[in-house]
Amino acid sequence: MTRSTTAQPEGPSGYREAIDLxxxxxxxxxxxxxxxxxxxxxxxxxxxxxxxxxxPSGCGKTTAMRMVNRMIDIxxxxxxxxxxxxxxxxxDDLRREIGYVIQQIGLFPHRTIGDNIATVPKLLGWDxxxxxxxxxxxxxxxxxxxxxxxxxxxxxxxxxxxxxALMRALVLDPSVLLFDExxxxxxxxxxxxxxxxxxxLFRTLEKSxxxxxxDLAEAAFVADEVVLLREGQVVQRGTAMDLVExxxxxxxxxxxxxxxxxxx
Length: 264
Fold this sequence. Notes:
Elements: E1 21-28, E2 38-45, E3 50-54, H1 61-68, E4 76-81, E5 84-85, H2 91-96, E6 98-102, H3 113-117, H4 119-123, H5 128-142, H6 158-170, E7 176-180, H7 188-205, E8 208-212, H8 216-222, E9 225-230, E10 233-238, H9 240-245, H10 250-258, H11 260-263
Parallel strand pairs: 3-8, 3-9, 6-7, 7-8
Antiparallel strand pairs: 1-2, 1-4, 4-5, 9-10
């Protein structure tokens, strides 16, 4: 279901509307391998939708996601962001349109939280007032106290550091958000809380989201649509309960059974 694209109020960074993300027979085959890591993947994420890729290790879900922002080059086929081929885009411009959050948070330990969030805006020449306004706006959006901007990463919990990584990805107000196992390193209680926060945030922001996880329960919590991959190809797509109650083939049933908590 496509979300509303009602115009958002003007903020310090301006606002970008959600846009479509489409895989058009996108293929990635690494040199020296017999089979593609992603094999002619065709998939559309409508503007404002949340699509979660699931599947066993090595199924191609992270490779597929990283082709979107050209962290990995496409071997054949194409990926369209807002109807434009990523292959024809300037890489820096493309990545400013796409927020990217990974499990390995990667904050600069010698910089304050405020400076971590402001890294790219400062490189782009934003003035001090605009930078400070955007940092303040994001801290409010994520629900962290304003005085946290003066702390350093080592003074934060794992969950707080992941929230800062999210703010850093949101700072340029991207149209598309990519999440690669962002909660995998967190303990179960913090992970559950952040799943809830992310689900609410996605619905507030109305951005197009591609989310990668191995956890079907997590996918069920945040997704509009779940896409199960095997050997770089789509096996089944739908809701998480579609996979549970209407498996397309025995592999789907095996995958669901392996998700023991979800199966219960």
